[in-house]
Structure formats: C-alpha cells, structure tokens
Design brief:
The structure is a single chain. The protein is mainly beta and about 280 residues long. The chain is built from three helices and 20 strands. The strands form four sheets. It has a seven-stranded mixed β-sheet with strand order 4-7-2-1-11-14-13. A five-stranded mixed β-sheet has the order 16-17-18-20-19, covered by helices on one side. It is globular, with a radius of gyration of 19 Å. Helix 1 packs across helix 3. The longest helix has 19 residues.
Amino acid sequence: MIRNPRSNLALVLVLLITSGATRATAQIPQPSSHAAVIRYTISLAKRAEQLVHITVELPPGQPERDLQLPVWNALYQVRDFSQYVNWLHARNKQGDPIGARLLDKSRWRITGAQNGAAIEYEIAARLSGPYGAELNKQHAFFNLAEILIYPSDGRLLPITLRITDIPANWRIATALTSSAAAEFTAENYDRMVDCPVEISAFQAADFEQDGAHYRIIVDADSAAYNLQKIVSLVSRIAAAATSWMDDRPFQNYAFFYHFPRAGGGGGMEHADSTAIDVN
C-alpha cells in the first residue's frame, strides 16, 4: 500500500495510541489500454472453518496471464500469504476449465483467458490483529492484500468487490466506496487493498470536525470499553494531529478498534483509516 499525504493523521494517531506500521512502496505496472473491470466476490459461508471462498472475474485480455498474491502488507518483512491457499481453479467465460499452474510460491499462470476468465480459490483467514485477515464466528476483519489475488497486467484496472453469505446481524465497515448493499468499488487494486474491512455486529459512533466526518468502529466485548470515552479521546487527538500537520486531505476517515483480552496489540495506518488493537 503506497504512502500518500492522507497517512499524516493516521501516523500521529498510531504513534500516540499504540505501535504503528508503515506501508511498503511497490512498483506499479502501466495501465491497460482498454476499459475493463475486475470483479471480486468474497463468501463468508465457511466461518466455522475460518475459510474464505473467493471468485475473481477477469475481463478479456491476453490468453496467457499471471496471477499474483502479494507477499507484502505494510510491515517491514516478506509475508507469505500464499501458504494459506488450499486450492485454485480457473475456467473460461463458457464455464469450461482452463489451465492454471503454480509458477512459484505466490504466482499462478492461467491459459485460455483471451475472452475473460473466472478464478476461484479457497484461503484460510486465521491471522488476528490489525495486520491480519481473520474470519470466524464472531467477525471478519480483512486486510485485503492478504487474501485477494490480482492479474499482473490489470493492477490499475477499476475494481468491484461483493461480499456474500453475511450473517443477518452483521454489517460492513470500510473506507471503500459503496455502490450497493454489500458491494464496493475502487479505482484500482492498490486503492482497494488499502481499505481494511470489518464485518460483524460491531458498535459504531460518528463525529464531525473541521469539515471532516470521522467514524469509530469497535468489535469487542461490550464490557471492555466505553464508546463515548473513545470518541471524546479520538476527537481531541484528531484535532491536535490535523492542527500540527496543518493538513487534512480527506473528507471521511475511519478508525477500527479491537480489544482482545490477551496478547496482540499494535496498529496499521491506511489512506483513509487506521486499524488498532489494544489489549
């Protein structure tokens, strides 16, 4: 996730509240010459097994295309997310299987994709905390770079993201732009994966400050926190941070809080949000 001026507020907040992590800069390929959209669908049906089923619909393009699962996620280390992939299959627009082979530990090559293709795979989501991707019976929290494969020739294409099989009492919180219920859009892959997603029966509160809208999302035992006290504290920190930086290049900002009873801790900053664990 590429650092931009919006991280100023998040950096100050993470330094003040808890330990922070920064984004690693990656090389971005040239945009595609044709207008197209990549469509992702994330299913939460296997919450009990902590398994995420993902479908990626690719537009027409080259017959042979490489798919990449990132090995980076804002920490100063290589993180091998591909070790959590159980299987991956590909089919063409007619629904017929097409070739899909593993090139190295985090890259696949598909063939026969000239008219578009659908990639399906299953990945375990068992990493808790602000740097992780976790699905269980209590909630889902995704740093999307950990679970979403992208085509190497389509990283700058527009994205749609749909989330299915959501329990009736769960809601979705993210800085992504919503296009419909449980559907979101982003201008490209990097923008999408720089927006963590919380899906649960979370509690939330909002406040306005100096022309910006802030939202606080908390998924934790209700006995572990006082939401109004958090709002009071965070609003003061936000006012101080934007004053010190003399900068507020956003209209909306989200804070994701988890309060585990033991272990963990830390924070990860994003362009329009920050995820923080405090035990």
